[in-house]
Amino acid sequence: MAKTARERRPIPALPDELFLWEILIRLPATALLRCREVCRSWRRLTFAADFLLAHHRRQPSLPLVTFDGDQHQTRTVEAFDLRQSPAERRHVLLFNNYYCRGNFEVFASCDGLLLLSLSNGRFTICNPVTRQWTELPTSLTGGDLI
Predict the structure, then answer these.
(1) pLDDT digits (tens, 9 = 90+) for 10-19
(2) For residue 21, what is the enclosing H or E element?
(3) What is the mean pLDDT of the chain?
(4) Fewest beta carbons less than 10 Å away: which of 74, 81, 121, 131?
(5) Which residues form the F-box domain (predicted)?
(6) Whose CA is closest to 95, among 112, 77, 110?
(7) Are 68 and 131 found together in one domain?
């Protein structure tokens, strides 16, 4: 027996933005940045404060970075994943095994990158997770660092 039009009630439509939110919130940050270029509505959604906060909450925790040493010994940068037991933790980066022998200070940090001020007056950007670093060129103008 066929159902009448009255018996076949359509399911209320869910807003496309809700589906889009649930998909985009699961993307890694780099993929999310690329998705912002798809269209204006995606860009608007991914710049909304509540979306950014929800996306940030879903991201994995970053390792704890510690610094060891004093002015008379080689300093080390060590990173640990706090989700691991102490027995499983390993050093992600030891600076005394890499380029940066000698003293340095952490001048700034942003999104896991460290800006190190070396004892020779130069600066190095370091990513402790990937074990990559690069020394910044000296200023051509001789200006002050702000």
Answers:
(1) 666 656 777 8
(2) helix 16-24
(3) 73
(4) 121
(5) 12-47
(6) 77
(7) yes
The beta strand positions in 82-131, using DSSP E, are 104-110, 113-118, 123-127
Closest CA to 78 of 51, 106, 54: 106
Distance, CA of 79 to CA of 93 (rounded, Å): 6
CA atoms of 21 and 45, how far apart (whole Å)? 8
Structure token digits, residue 5:
């039009």
Residues 6+ apart with CB under 8 A from 109: 115
d(C-alpha 146, C-alpha 25), whole Å:
35
d(CA 119, CA 109): 18
**Residue 114 sits in the same domain as residue 69:** yes
97, 128, 91, 98: which is closest to 113 by C-alpha? 128
Q: Identify the domain containing residue 22 by its residue range.
A: 16-58
The most distant pair of C-alpha atoms in the chain lies apart, rounded to whole Å, by 90
**Owner of token pair 């999104």:** 111
